[in-house]
Structures are given as C-alpha cells and as structure tokens.
Design goal:
There is one protein chain. The chain has 3 helices and 4 strands, in the order βαβββαα. With 123 residues, the chain is an alpha/beta fold. The chain has one domain: 3-Layer(aba) Sandwich (Collagenase (Catalytic Domain)). β1, α1 and β2 form a beta-alpha-beta unit. It binds zinc ion.
Amino acid sequence: MNLKINGPRGGLPREHDKIKEFIKHSSDILDLDKFNITLEVIVCNQFKGDFEDAVGLCYPWNDLNDITVELARKDSCGVSVDILETLSHEMIHVRQCANGEYMYENPARKHESFLLDLVMERM
Ligand SMILES: [Zn+2]
C-alpha cells in the first residue's frame, strides 16, 4: 500500500507525522499492506457543500486501485473533532473498499473505537 498525505491544496498538513504513524499501525492491524493500492489522505479545516455534515469521507477511484480519505478538523458547527477518531472509522472503510466490498456503516461504527484503542496503544 502506498501512502500520500496532503493538505487541501497539496503541501503537508501539520498532523502529517501523526497520521502517517496512525496509518502504519492501523494498516498492520487491518492487514492492508497486502493490497496494491495507493491511499491518499487529505486534511482540511472544514467540509463545504454537499458533505458539510460529515467530518470524514472515503471513496475509491481508478478502478479501486486508489482510495482517497478526506478528514476535516472541524464539524459543520465549527467544533474541533479528533481527526484520529475519524481516521479510525475511515480506515475500516478503506479495508472494505480494498476488499471490493460495499462500504457498510455498521461494521465501521462497530470497530472504529476498538481499532483506535489498538493503534493508540502502539503510538
Ligand atoms: Zn462511515
């Protein structure tokens, strides 16, 4: 699995190192390294438009070979959120996506806090 971490207009977000380490551990736990995919994580301050109620997005493109995760630092009310909590949820979707599965919400909600705990133990 290849990894790219970017700010909204390219460049490195300030959380770059933390996100990189989080993804390294979660990929190990979720066994994502076996997939020949490129994961791009984009961090922005707040989502606008259609997705303004969300704080995280995950979507595949290029025939499932590339997966993009977008993280927002603030929700639609301007309240700061923990991007690692969001990332934990989205990493479950990355696994579903890499497996060619539909991105179901229930398994992601069910496992996100367990994954977060396991990763935080390693950081
Ligand atoms: Zn979700």
